[in-house]
């Protein structure tokens, strides 16, 4: 049975190990390949942050900002 892509809502997330601008772009592209689809309806950032940094560190905030910028670029 073939399902029309427009009839389903696909959600995924950028894992805490895949955050950063380049990493988030790559993560999304890998998701699309694995799912064999052209777009995601919702892509979220895993919380509380990047796996190797304390959630309150400035580096964690910086990497999450870069991840957010990647999501904005991917939307375009």
Question: Globular, elongated, flat, extended or rod-shaped: what is the shape?
Answer: elongated
Give the total of beta strands.
2
Number of helices: 2
Secondary-structure element series: EHEH
Amount of helix = 40-55%
Secondary structure class reads mainly alpha
Give the distance, in angstroms, between the N- and C-terminal Cα atoms: 32 Å
What is the makeup of the main sheet? 2 strands, parallel
- Unreliable residue runs: none
The figure for the number of domains is: 1
> Taking Cα atoms only, what radius of gyration do you get, to the nearest Å?
14 Å
**Order of strands side by side in the largest beta sheet?**
1-2
Mean pLDDT: 91
Beta-strand residue percentage? 5-15%
């Amino acid at each position: 049975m073939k399902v029309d892509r427009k009839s389903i809502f696909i959600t995924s997330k950028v894992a805490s190990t895949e955050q950063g601008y380049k990493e988030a772009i790559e993560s999304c592209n890998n998701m699309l390949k694995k799912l064999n689809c052209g777009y995601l309806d919702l892509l979220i950032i895993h919380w509380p942050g990047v796996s190797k940094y304390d959630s309150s560190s400035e580096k964690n905030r910086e990497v999450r900002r870069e991840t957010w910028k990647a999501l904005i670029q991917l939307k375009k």
